[in-house]
């Protein structure tokens, strides 16, 4: 059963087909559409888990689409990086469950089925992106999840949503074009679109066009991942989107940029002259992003903008890890990608629950909410503390590994960056916790607020508990990504 | 040293964790809240004391499960030093909980208060029993998180300011510890606290200095080592049982304990003696003892004077540890208990006076000895202990510290002891004199009777101050544990005396 | 000189790069949202043109194996890629135009510097304060 070969394409096909069918089957039936979408997401999660079990049992494996063998046909590959699909399925499922009541208020009713369709298509695109072994499909799947993400941001009712979505779209499309252009260059140089194949053929190639391709791919994926200084689209888009969409965007879609960069590095492995300057640059930009994002988060009034800037900071952490290129740092960055996804989706969903009940988004207005909405506030407090890297919660594993990597790479100043950024992150977390728990209510909607229904608090609680539990699973997770680190960076110290 | 696998260290941490969960869930019933709070303190107390005979017989209890990070286990290991700290805090916890139940009776959000109160003891015992630096750090940071709601309990502007200051200081300290710990792990590949020194002289000196500064400064924040002390006087706005917790039992002692672990288990006395850093730490601590005493002299608020006195007393421990002499080490470890029992007596007294009369200033105490004789008698005993009067706990510290200073060839610190004793006398004795020998300012008719649940813990603590002073050599007393810990740090086979 | 020779040998590449830069220039500098989309389209076209030309071989025949037709064949793959790319580009353009319509109806303008987002536009509920302390 586990060995059935066709699970792999199902991972992408299931949500894509399910998504396309949603508006056709459930026109004007938003609740049924929600149930359908959640079921599809649950099935997708089950498929991802089945693939993970096989991966754990027998290592990475591939799939030739349509029976055409790799190099000629399209290849799908499931490896440790692709296993992010499990986190994607989990978070998408919880976001969909959360959406049932949220969307009824936040999105126009006749658009709700469309909303669920787009979430599923987004998930399908992400999953496809994670498992494709083919450069052009990388682009196609990237466009699938990107375009659906633009549309999802615009789904919110607030007038700002359309503008934020448009800004996101223009920058996203620009980055996609850079990627497509670079794919074209790689294809022109090697005559193949298969990533493994191209990686072999590209080694011998001349430096100039290869450098161009690397620069294009790196820039494109850096924009997608919102690496400083090309992060400026993110706070608008993530703050304006409906909360479950913000969760998916911050947790998963920006991580696709990270995965894209990892796949890119795989392509150029061995070209040290090209990679070294890029990696150095990435470390610096990551450090600036970690500090700048955390400081910007500290001065925000809007809770969702604060969370969005914190995503910029965490992307900074991850890129520091990728750029340091030591085994500890890279595996730490990979694990932090997953852990951050869990913590940040908990936070965005909790913020969504608060906005759903009170309509308030300014942190100072949330005073006294801890007594009115105990479970949501608890989830938010736990995830905030976990995010700041207080051990043994999930945020600590990545911080420790990346800082250790900084020492290994002979750059102790980065430890200071990580420590300071961690303290700033906790500072804004404490601001929210103070408002929630240690201040009397200041606004009418707070005083009359009650806890959200179980379909909303349960996802928040599950993700909050997971963000504590994942901290204890640091060692197995780091061991799990080990082979991926080796295959991306070749033999590193 | 035989190392036994034993689940009691884990149970000791888990027991009050579960009881804290129960306290959080029983929101309305005051009786069940009291039951679970006392259960948290009581079970822990029994478990910790049950390990005493084994430790005295030279055994070490350990319990490990899984790895927190590659190469660093999450585990507990009970050695003499850790057990000593756990004994002191778990004993005081029972008393503090009883006192708090009476003191906080009419306050708000009590399930939150007692829930986090129980969590604090859980994390403190976790610090005491940590097998490695990372486990210690985990509980150290959790202690910060768990004490924060307690400091913020009054939810007013003053409490928020104090809470903010506390967090900024302690979290920055945590950041320094994290950096130091990373450096230790990077250099040695281990964080174990099972040996007397995991660093060695082959490591570049710049790294050793960086590690020393980072770890001492990091732990120094909670130990209120000047100039990192500013959070402690600010945090006295918290309810009195919380002040007791901060000043005597958990928080500052966690910092001091971290410094002791750094000196004895991370560096080891031999390496530190060669490096010479400890000498500077001793000079700093000696200066802090005097400056903080002078500051205490100038305070008029009762709790503020106590806070500055705490800063001064904590530096005794740091000074004694930094002297790197076996007898001074004994003084350092013993003073964890001596300071704790005396200081907690004083805080309890301050809280009782505040509850009974509403008085919070030291110049309002005229004649109060006649109105609250038992309370003030306890206060007098505690102040005599701080002055270093023989037969009191504080004398034991000063005696061994002075002997240790002579052993280490730093006779100047004997002078510091004497001077500090005089300063202590000059700010405690006037209070004692006022309380007993001046006529009361009012008739005492509007005196609110103090619950026995507050008086009994005060008397028990005061009794301990005498017991620690005169019964120091009794076999089952903490003294023998402290001696065992000091022997281990200096790798001595024979008793110290 | 070597680079120049290579470049002159691929005038098509140079044209693609020039188009790409022109498009990027419009996208970045213009404050008008429709013009930004036009800039994006120019860039897309340049990338498509570039990829199509990579498949070109001098004197290459269409890749149809029929009687009388002999190689060298031009590579068909770039055309397939570009077709997909065009589909994506069309969908992005249409989505962008729809969003611009919404922006126009909500803010009354499609010039970025004339659009001023307010708190209300961010979706903040307006309600009265009931007091409470400040520090």
CATH class category of chain C: Mainly Alpha
What's the CATH architecture of chain C? Orthogonal Bundle
N-to-C series of helices and strands of chain A: HHEEHHHHHHHHHHHHHHHHHH
What are the low-pLDDT stretches of chain C, counting only 5+ consecutive residues below 50?
125-135
Order of helices and strands of chain C: HHHH
Task: Tell me what you see in this structure.
The complex is a heterotrimer of chains A (493), B (497) and C (135). Chain A has 493 residues and is mainly α. Chain A has one domain (7-489). Chain A has helices at 7-25, 30-58, 84-106, 112-131, 135-154, 160-190, 195-202, 207-225, 233-240, 243-267, 272-298, 303-324, 327-358, 369-372, 374-387, 394-408, 413-437, 444-447, 454-472, 474-489, and strands at 61-64, 75-78. Chain A has a two-stranded antiparallel ribbon with strand order 1-2. In chain A, helix 2 (30-58) packs antiparallel against helix 3 (84-106) and helix 11 (272-298) runs parallel beside helix 17 (413-437). Chain B has 21 helices and three strands. In chain B, a hairpin with a 2-residue loop joins strand 2 (60-69) and strand 3. The two termini of chain B are 21 Å apart. The model of chain B has no long low-confidence stretch (mean pLDDT 81). Chain C has one domain: Helix Hairpins. Mean pLDDT of chain C is 78; it is low at 125-135. Chain C is mostly helical. At the A-C interface, helix 5, helix 6 and helix 18 of A face helix 2, helix 3 and helix 4 of C.
What does the secondary structure layout of this molecule look like, with pairings?
The complex is a heterotrimer of chains A (493), B (497) and C (135).
Chain A: H1 7-25, H2 30-58, E1 61-64, E2 75-78, H3 84-106, H4 112-131, H5 135-154, H6 160-190, H7 195-202, H8 207-225, H9 233-240, H10 243-267, H11 272-298, H12 303-324, H13 327-358, H14 369-372, H15 374-387, H16 394-408, H17 413-437, H18 444-447, H19 454-472, H20 474-489
Antiparallel strand pairs in A: 1-2
Chain B: E1 3-5, H1 8-25, H2 30-50, H3 52-56, E2 60-69, E3 72-78, H4 80-103, H5 110-129, H6 133-151, H7 157-188, H8 205-222, H9 231-234, H10 240-249, H11 251-267, H12 269-275, H13 277-297, H14 302-322, H15 326-357, H16 368-371, H17 373-387, H18 393-407, H19 412-437, H20 452-470, H21 478-489
Parallel strand pairs in B: 1-2
Antiparallel strand pairs in B: 2-3
Chain C: H1 2-9, H2 11-29, H3 33-54, H4 77-107
């Amino acid at each position: 059963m586990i060995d059935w070969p066709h699970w792999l394409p199902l991972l992408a096909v299931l949500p894509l087909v399910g998504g396309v069918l949603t508006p056709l089957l459930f026109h004007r039936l938003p609740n049924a559409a929600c149930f359908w979408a959640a079921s599809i997401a649950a099935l997708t999660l089950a498929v991802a888990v089945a693939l993970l079990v096989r991966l754990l049992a027998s290592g990475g494996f591939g799939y030739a689409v349509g029976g055409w063998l790799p190099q000629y046909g399209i290849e799908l590959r499931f490896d440790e990086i692709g296993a992010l699909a499990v986190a994607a399925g989990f978070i998408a499922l919880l976001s969909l469950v959360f959406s049932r009541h949220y969307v009824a208020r936040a999105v126009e009713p006749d658009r709700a089925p469309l909303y669920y369709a787009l979430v599923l298509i987004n998930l399908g695109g992400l999953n496809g992106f994670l498992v494709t072994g083919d450069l052009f499909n990388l682009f196609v799947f990237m466009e699938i999840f990107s375009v659906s993400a633009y549309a999802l941001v615009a789904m919110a009712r607030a007038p700002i949503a359309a503008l934020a979505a448009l800004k996101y779209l223009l920058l996203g499309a620009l980055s996609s074009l850079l990627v497509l252009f670079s794919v074209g260059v790689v294809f022109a140089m090697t005559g193949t679109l298969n990533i493994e194949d191209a990686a072999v053929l590209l080694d011998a190639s001349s430096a100039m066009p290869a450098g161009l391709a690397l620069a294009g791919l790196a820039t494109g994926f850096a924009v997608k991942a919102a690496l400083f200084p090309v992060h400026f689209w993110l706070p608008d888009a993530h703050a304006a989107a409906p909360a479950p969409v913000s969760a998916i965007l911050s947790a998963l879609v920006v991580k696709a940029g990270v995965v894209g960069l990892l796949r890119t590095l795989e392509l150029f492995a061995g070209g040290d002259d090209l990679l070294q300057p890029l990696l150095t640059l990435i470390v610096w930009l990551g450090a600036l992003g970690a500090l700048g994002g955390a400081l910007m988060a500290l001065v925000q009034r809007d809770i969702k903008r604060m969370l969005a800037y914190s995503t910029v900071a965490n992307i900074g952490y991850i890129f520091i890890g990728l750029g340091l290129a030591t085994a500890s740092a890279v595996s730490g960055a990979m694990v932090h990608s997953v852990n951050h996804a869990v913590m940040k989706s908990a936070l965005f969903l909790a913020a969504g629950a608060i906005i759903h009940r009170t309509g308030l988004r300014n942190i100072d207005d949330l005073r006294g909410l801890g007594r009115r909405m105990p479970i949501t506030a608890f989830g938010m407090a736990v995830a905030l503390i976990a995010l700041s890297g207080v051990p043994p919660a999930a945020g600590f594993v990545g911080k420790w590994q990346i800082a250790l990597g900084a020492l290994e790479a002979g750059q102790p100043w980065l430890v200071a960056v990580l420590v300071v950024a961690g303290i700033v992150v906790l500072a804004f977390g404490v601001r929210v916790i103070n408002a929630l728990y240690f201040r009397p209510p200041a606004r009418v909607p707070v005083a009359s607020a009650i806890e959200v229904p179980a379909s909303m608090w349960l996802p928040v609680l599950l993700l909050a508990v997971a963000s504590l539990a994942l901290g204890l699973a640091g060692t197995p997770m780091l061991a799990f990504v080990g082979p991926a680190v080796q295959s991306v960076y070749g033999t590193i110290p | 040293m035989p190392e036994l696998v034993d689940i009691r260290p884990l149970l000791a941490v888990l027991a009050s964790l579960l009881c804290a969960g129960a306290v959080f869930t029983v929101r309305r019933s005051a009786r069940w809240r009291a039951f679970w709070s006392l259960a948290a303190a009581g079970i822990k107390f029994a478990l910790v004391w049950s390990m005493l005979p084994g430790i005295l017989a030279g055994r070490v209890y350990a319990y490990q499960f899984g790895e927190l990070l590659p190469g660093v286990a999450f585990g507990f290991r009970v050695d003499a030093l850790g057990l000593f700290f756990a004994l002191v805090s778990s004993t005081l916890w029972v008393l503090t909980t009883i006192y708090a139940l009476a003191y906080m009776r009419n306050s708000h959000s009590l399930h939150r208060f007692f829930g986090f109160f129980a969590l604090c003891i859980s994390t403190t015992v976790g610090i005491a029993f940590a097998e490695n630096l990372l486990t210690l750090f985990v509980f150290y940071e959790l202690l910060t998180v768990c004490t924060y709601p307690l400091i913020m309990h009054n939810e007013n502007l003053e409490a928020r300011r104090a809470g903010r200051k506390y967090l900024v200081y302690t979290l920055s300290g945590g950041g320094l510890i994290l950096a130091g710990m990373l450096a230790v792990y990077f250099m040695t590949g281990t964080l174990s606290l099972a040996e007397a020194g995991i660093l060695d002289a082959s490591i570049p000196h710049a790294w050793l200095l960086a590690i020393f500064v980072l770890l001492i400064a990091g732990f120094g924040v909670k130990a209120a080592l000047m100039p990192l002390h500013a959070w402690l006087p600010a945090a006295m706005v918290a309810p009195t049982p919380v002040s007791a917790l901060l000043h005597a039992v958990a928080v500052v002692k966690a910092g001091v304990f971290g410094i002791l672990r750094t000196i004895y288990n991370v560096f080891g006395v031999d390496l530190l003696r060669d490096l010479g850093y400890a000498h500077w730490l001793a000079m700093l601590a000696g200066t802090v003892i005097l400056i903080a005493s002078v500051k205490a002299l100038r305070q008029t608020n009762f709790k503020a004077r106590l806070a500055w006195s705490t800063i001064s007393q904590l530096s005794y421990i740091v000074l004694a540890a930094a002297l790197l002499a076996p007898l001074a080490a004994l003084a350092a470890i013993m003073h964890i208990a001596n300071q704790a029992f005396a200081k907690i007596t004083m805080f309890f007294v301050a809280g009782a006076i505040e509850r009974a009369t509403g008085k919070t200033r030291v110049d309002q105490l005229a004649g109060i000895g006649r109105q609250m004789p038992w309370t003030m008698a306890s206060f007098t005993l505690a102040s005599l202990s701080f002055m270093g009067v023989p037969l009191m706990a504080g004398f034991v510290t000063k005696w061994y510290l002075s002997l240790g200073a002579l052993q280490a060839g730093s006779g100047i610190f004997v002078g510091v002891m004497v001077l500090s004793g005089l300063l202590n006398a000059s700010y405690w004795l006037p209070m004692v004199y006022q309380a007993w020998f001046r006529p009361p300012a009012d008739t005492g008719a509007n005196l609110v009777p103090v619950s026995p649940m507050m008086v009994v813990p005060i008397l028990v603590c005061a009794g301990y101050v005498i017991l620690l002073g005169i019964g120091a050599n009794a076999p089952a007393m903490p003294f023998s544990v402290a001696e065992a810990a000091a022997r281990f740090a200096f790798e001595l086979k024979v008793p110290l005396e | 000189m070597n680079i120049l020779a290579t470049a002159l040998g691929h005038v098509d590449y140079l044209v693609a790069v020039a188009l790409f830069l022109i498009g990027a220039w419009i996208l970045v500098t213009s404050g008008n949202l429709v013009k930004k989309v036009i800039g994006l389209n120019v860039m897309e076209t340049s990338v498509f043109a570039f990829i199509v030309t990579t498949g070109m071989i001098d004197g290459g025949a269409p890749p149809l194996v029929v009687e009388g037709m002999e190689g060298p064949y031009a590579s068909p793959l770039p055309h397939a890629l570009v077709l997909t790319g065009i589909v994506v580009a069309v969908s992005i353009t249409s989505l962008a135009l729809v969003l611009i319509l919404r922006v126009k109806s909500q803010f009354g303008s499609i010039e970025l510097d004339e659009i001023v987002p307010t708190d209300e536009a961010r979706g903040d509920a307006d309600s009265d304060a009931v007091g409470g302390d400040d520090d």
